[in-house]
Amino acid sequence: MLCLGIETSCDETALALVRDGVVIADVMSSQADVHALFGGVVPELASREHYRLIGALCDEVLRRAGVTAADIDVVAVARGPGLLGSLLVGMGFAKGLALTTGARLVGVNHLHAHLLAAGIAAEMAYPALGLLVSGGHTHIYRMESPRHMPLLGRTLDDAAGEAFDKVAKQLGLAYPGGRTIDELGRKGRVNPTMFPRPYVDNDNLDFSFSGLKTAAGLVVQANPALIKAARAVATGSALSADASHVDGTEPDSALPDISDLYDMCASFNHAVADTLRIKLERALVRENGPLPGAPAAPARKKRKKSGMVAVAAAQAASPEQAAPAADAGQGGPAPNPHRAPVRALVAAGGVAANSYVREALGDLARRAGLPLLLPSPALCTDNGIMVAHAGWRLASLGLGHGLALEAIPRGRSIPDDFTMFRSV
Ligand code: KG4
Ligand code: ZN
After folding, report:
1. All domains of the chain, ordered by start, with CATH?
2. Which ligand 1 atom sits closest to the C-alpha of 356?
């Protein structure tokens, strides 16, 4: 079965071909440079760019694979969530192709496609617990199958990726800044009390990163030297500051002290990774019961407001006040004995490319004695391969859509409105 995947939900126009689960070609054009000028994605520009490029990219992916449009059995397209105008470009193209070639149309949930990408290089084990961490979403799913993924916890405000991008913007770093903050952090030392673990002091599996973003903003405001250091990084003059940092020679007094920036980034990465780990561990305990060798649940204090907690913690003078919650929520409802225990942990989406997140989740998986399935860093961020792969999985189950398939913008949940067809 030859499946073409089309991804246009945000600022990447990406197409890929998968034959019986094997990737045979992929192409991608990122609009990051266009949007970097404005510090974030401009929806109108994004859809125009998709429209300008999609035809040429389709020709190119077919050429690279040595096939023609008539060879395609399945056209899979990301139907949402995303920017509506951008989704409509991909959807219109996919429908036209399906109509003219007779290929099966499959509308793919972009978030599910991210998670399913963890099953490209490794065998997916169902049920799995899936953490989706992207620019717009921080969700925990129980993955029952490629089709059924009940949502256990969700983003209440800023997603983890948004927090990365906004902090990078405050530092004056280019959009999207998550990867840069990851890389800068690797050169620094983590101060575990610099930032709070936002919204963990509760009983739920939801996420709120706006407090952490505010806390980081306060640190940047209070230390303008961080912005100077970030500018030095962006212009390349940080290289000489780096050299003196590494070899211990006297730093050039004209250059800002870059090590504070590295340490701040290291601490921010660590706070995000630890928060994700805490909530995923809590979800795992609810599904499977306490982790092997876990201590008894500590008593939790009640607090009022997550945003205030974050700001207060950032401003707190004593380490005790700002100390991260070690609690992974061993309490909460007991596991449902009628539900099969989860067999694997999965993490995907742009922020799952983060080295601190990968380490923290790796540690959790080791303690839990479960495999951790992660797409390669390149397949964590938006790409066409994940859509083609998800489309192939769904079509293999006999699933597809008619031409009435709807695009779903961000904020609306994706309906499970598949039609059953014969297996392709
Ligand atoms: O999944 P994705 O490509 O697009 C969405 O579906 O949103 O995720 C993009 C997000 C951006 O916020 C970007 O800054 C973040 O993923 N990101 C990272 C890293 N690589 C990409 N965040 C932290 N560390 C990284 N290494
Ligand atoms: Zn995405």
Report:
1. 2-115+381-420 (3.30.420.40), 125-374 (3.30.420.40)
2. 24
